[in-house]
Write the structure tokens for this entry.
Amino acid sequence: MTNYLIRRSFQMLMVLFFSALVTYTLLTLAPGGPWEEILGRQGSETMRIDAEDIARIRAQYELDLDQTWRFTRWLFGWPNGPIRIGEQELLADFQVGCFLPLETTNALGETVIIGCQKPVTLKDLEGRRVSRGVIFGDFGLSWGILRDRPVMDVLWSRIPRTLQLMFTVTVLSLMIGIPLGLISAIRQYSLFDYTVTTLSFLGSSMPTFFFGIILILIFAITFKQWGWFYLPPGDAVGSRDYVVPMLGKVEAGSLLDQLLRMIMPVSVLVFFSVAGWSRFIRSSMLEVLRQDYVRTARAKGLLENVVIFKHAFRNALIPFVTIVVFAIPGMFSGAIVTETIFNWPGMGRLFIDALSRNDYPVSMSIFLIGATLTVIATLIGDILYTIVDPRIRLS
Amino acid sequence: MTASATPAPKKVVEILQPEAMPKEESQFAIIRRRFFRHRLATFSLGLLLVIFIAAIFARQLASYGPTEIELTNRFAPPGSVSAESGRTNWLGTDHLGRDYFSRILYAARISLTVAFSVVILSTVIGSLFGAISGYYGGLVDDIAMRFVEFMLTIPELPLLLIISSILLQSPQAIPVPKALIDLMAVLLYLGPREALQVIMVMLVLTAFGWLGVSRLMRGMVLSIKNMEYVEAARALGVSDFGIITRHLIPNAFAPIIVQASLALAGFVITESVLGFLAFGIQDPTPTWGNMLAFTQSYMFEHPWLPLIPGLPIFICAMAFNFVGDGLRDALDPRLKH
């Protein structure tokens, strides 16, 4: 077990390191960003920028450092100055980048860099602003959503909304999905079973966004036109009071308002996770019901309820535990599509907003945090599996 | 060799009791019979055929060009006749007065081409990768499967969106042969820039599409590779490549085909999700996803709008799923629990 844990943790760290590397590479490949915006203005009349200015701006975004050091500084905030041992400074002159490149024009008229006029040394890094590094939870500054504010601030403004949505969805879909799967397994090939399997087939093959839009179409638009009870089509909190037939006036920001706005996004997500989960419970329950020990229990003359709940259902739940744990990271990155359709101010919407405004630090952090949580959840899921099912040994 | 060996015993049986023999049925006929027993799958296949034919003859069926604008004829209701040109807008027009019916047809062409290309590409790549990994085993398998596992751990949609947003803004990052761009441009009636965009979306989808196939193929190969006929082939001196492509992959094909037809549904949806979120093929090139995105802003005044591009996505996704389900019943009845 200890061996297994050590090996798995090592694997986990490798996956995370590579995710960070991928994220960082994408971040440097990403077009746009504050740097290009400034470069774009360079040609205009109002902005006259000389080589020294460019170098300064480049330094501000660390573009003057070598890729390796930029990556380590982004990852864990090192190096941030010369190496100190006691009073002594080591490697103060070690070159980590080039502040002012030496350029020349080649035969084709292109500018090529042939050397370095003014190198950046470890000594120069002292006093430069540096993030504490992503592994310590410092994701740098936002480029667009909240310009030059820490990415973490942006994330924290959205996390509660996503958690609110996802917590409700998980609880509801467990409460609905497990009984549905259970009953349709017990009454296999009954009308109930056919209805559930058809619906779950529908749920697993229907695109989320289409279902969401249909809901808005029916419950927000058509019902309102007919003067029936209707639901507000989007947002988490209203900005204006509105009147709903049968309910009366709904105050913006009141509990009722928030509740009404949650109904549609929650329904969409619940429908889709119930589809998956009930199907899973059904098939694992059918598998268990075929086992010999269930037949033995029945042969002993136990009550059918005891057979089902005590002997079969408990065993059917074993693989389900891991599935539920695997689903947890999804809560963080949120339901990108659903949040976008219902204009829900959570992480999923933030991700899309950040991408469309080229705010890559924000979108990459969401991605990286999501990947981290997924990896951790996978590990926890595997460990939990051995705890609930002692027959399985990790090796 | 096998062909000359099989007819002999059949003849013996025929001579012994000619009238008692059941009618010979080829493997293909059995599969076909089983497939057509699945009513929904048969119906879906018919529906898909209609959609394919409509997509193939998009130019002949559409009365408008895919990006033709009639600004005086915005939000025309379905079935109305344009006062400007006298043509009928069977499904109405959008916020720029573009004919929905024509755009849906051209979009079908694009969406289905993307879905099929991605499925073919990812099935080929995934099958080869999985077969090699499963056949050689050992270190190769370890490295290959760690890589696949790693890729599967990463949340797919976010990364897909990041990569496509980067690629859409700098498509020169991946060199694409000019011939391929021209082929897509001709096939989909697009300009070279739009064709490149379509290719980018295909590449992004393929980057993740092959992972599942490779795991499936590896599992199949692991169970097949110790069979006697593989051993026999090896004893005959067939090369590894020959064994993989001639014996392993064809024998593992049934579940791969089923997976591919289910994946078609997935790719139709993913492509339209990318389009819907504005990180796929961009307007004015019509795709069902990006058309749906625009209708959301106007659905309060014109509630029928989202149904027009939304229903084709829904119908296609469902139909591919049913066909996959039918194929599963037909090809490998054991797969159904």
Summary: Chain A has two domains: 34-142, 153-388.
